[in-house]
Amino acid sequence: MFEAAIVLLYGLVAVAAMAVTLLEGWTNHDGLTLHRLAGLFACMLWPLTILFFILHGCVARLLTRRSRSAA
What we know:
Blueprint: H1 2-27, H2 34-45, H3 48-70
């Protein structure tokens, strides 16, 4: 359940960022330039940092629990 929520949140953030990037190109009448395509690709990648920190917190909490139970 928690993993599904993370994936859904990731998808929503990425789609929102992509929509803003596409709307910016539409209002400037630029179409799909190389820079716009690079921006769309970046929209897919930058939320990975959020996911990384969330997973890091989960792993650190799990390791802390295991070390306390072993002692």
